[in-house]
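Entry 12.
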Amino acid sequence: MESREENTKHRYGIANIERRKYRRFPVRLPIEYYRADSPISQTGQTLNASEGGFQILFSERMEIGQNLRLKLFFSSGSELNSIETLAEVVWMDPQLGEGEKHYRSGVKFINISAEDSTKLKNFIVSLS
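Predicted 3D structure (tokens):
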């Protein structure tokens, strides 16, 4: 006869390990964007931000791999700042939820100046 202890399987909780390189902070900020092949600007809004990218609400559906020129606006103290970057769409939510009018997508920075990178880092530090 086997003991009850031998029949019991050990169960472990699922560890949620963050695999992102940069911590994300929820923040809604206005953003202006241009498709890399178009001079026409559109507007969107960030849902979260990190040193490596943003989650953005777009009024149009984006394609994975698409390059965008972004301009983010934020305040730091009494100053209005902006940063510009070239970003790549790395994921997108292909469906709109009920009542939604915007598509959610994630972008990663592929080209950002050292000055704008420093401004963004300082802003993100102020959020934590």
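Annotation: The longest helix spans residues 114-127. The domain at 24-127 is CATH 2.40.10.220 (Thrombin, subunit H).
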